Amino acid sequence: MTGPRNRGDTMRAAQLLHNSGQSIWLDNITRDLLESGTLQRYIDEFSVTGLTSNPIIFDQAIKNSSAYDTAIRDGLARGKTGEALFFDLALADITRAADLFRPIYDRTNGVDGWVSLEVSPLLAYDTASTLREVKDLSARGARPNLFIKIPGTREGLPAIEEAIFAGLPVNVTLLFSREHYVAAAEAFLRGIERRMDAGLNPNVGSVASVFISRWDVAVMTRVPDAMKDQLGIAIAKRTYKACRSLLSSARWQRVYNAGARPQRLLWASTGTKDPKASDILYIKALVAPFTVNTMPDGTLKALAEHTDIGTPLPADGGDCEEVLSKFAKAGIDVDSLASELQDQGAKSFVKSWNDLLAVIASKSAALIKPVLKAGG
């Protein structure tokens, strides 16, 4: 993989993370990022080896840029509107990004170099429709390093299993707890085992995305100052312990022996939300080999200014249960809050999706008016 250029004799934190065995992915995509060469620069200088997107990111990208206007006008001329027009725009960006990361994907034999595109969040609780859209987007994207994101909701789990069985790479999103992660990992494993039983190649790429910072935002006003910015990290440690246990289990090792690859754990929502905390709080706290940390531009740039990283996460979870016990005594019901956060996450994506479609409709109307006027 490409590492950053050293500044002087000091190895920067991004390269240290890369050297520790953790992948740095960018949690953003815009056409401007592609056109300006900024994404290529992140790859070359900041060890970025993959990319994730979601409806919120695309909403902001299209709303705040004129870079999509020509493509929107062309889509309208072809009779595309609404969701169909959006996926044309998104796939154009995502496939360009996938091509930039393709050398990394090839060099790492498919371990790294992935990009992610989410199914419509309106389908988060609809298994059959989610699976249909996963198949459609995978076929249209036509890139081996394209993950389709499926929410790890109860209804999403069967779609995850079926997508993996169909050989479609999946980024499982909206996971918030150890229990959410384990359910998603088992759905992945069932899909792989079914491929083995059917005599199919069991090597299907997948990551499981666990959201971190939203835990601390949720309890910010409910706990003493001394306990702030600790819950998300404790949840991560508990989840990492479960991950290490699964990956070393006899059941999982059986599928590795048949040619499957492990599903990697991905830390999502790792931008610092507390203005009083370190700008790389969740980056230093979540160092772990064979994991991914996907971060927004601001956090990536902040990381580039540091010259050290934290110690790796303990495989046994370290002090996570002790910390979580303190939160329980403070009245925080972690299981209940995990469900609440997943539901809120799904709803926030739906809101951004509706905002996104409204922005596309507004831009479409504005762009088509001059055409109509000229034609009239």
Please provide a written account of the structure.
The protein starts with 12 loop residues before the first helix and ends with a helix. Residues 1-10 have low confidence and may be disordered. An 8-stranded parallel sheet has the order 2-1-8-7-6-5-4-3. The chain has helices at residues 13-20, 31-35, 38-46, 55-63, 69-77, 82-107, 127-141, 156-165, 178-197, 213-219, 231-247, 250-257, 281-285, 297-304, 320-329, 334-375; strands spanning 23-27, 48-52, 115-118, 146-151, 170-175, 206-211, 264-268, 291-295. The protein is globular and about 60 Å long. The protein is α/β, with parallel strands linked by helices and 376 residues long. The chain is 55% helix and 11% strand. The chain is built from 16 helices and 8 strands.
Jot down its keywords.
8 strands; globular; 16 helices; 376 residues; alpha/beta; eight-stranded parallel β-sheet
Number of helices: 16
Taking Cα atoms only, what radius of gyration do you get, to the nearest Å? 21 Å
Low-confidence stretches: 1-10
What's the number of extended β-strand segments?
Answer: 8
List the quaternary state of the chains.
single chain
SSE string, helices as H and strands as E: HEHHEHHHEHEHEHEHHHEHEHHH
Largest sheet: 8 strands, parallel
How do the helices and strands line up, and which of them pair or pack?
Layout: H1 13-20, E1 23-27, H2 31-35, H3 38-46, E2 48-52, H4 55-63, H5 69-77, H6 82-107, E3 115-118, H7 127-141, E4 146-151, H8 156-165, E5 170-175, H9 178-197, E6 206-211, H10 213-219, H11 231-247, H12 250-257, E7 264-268, H13 281-285, E8 291-295, H14 297-304, H15 320-329, H16 334-375
Parallel strand pairs: 1-2, 1-8, 3-4, 4-5, 5-6, 6-7, 7-8
Helix pairs in contact: 4-16, 5-16, 6-16, 7-8, 8-9, 9-11, 11-15
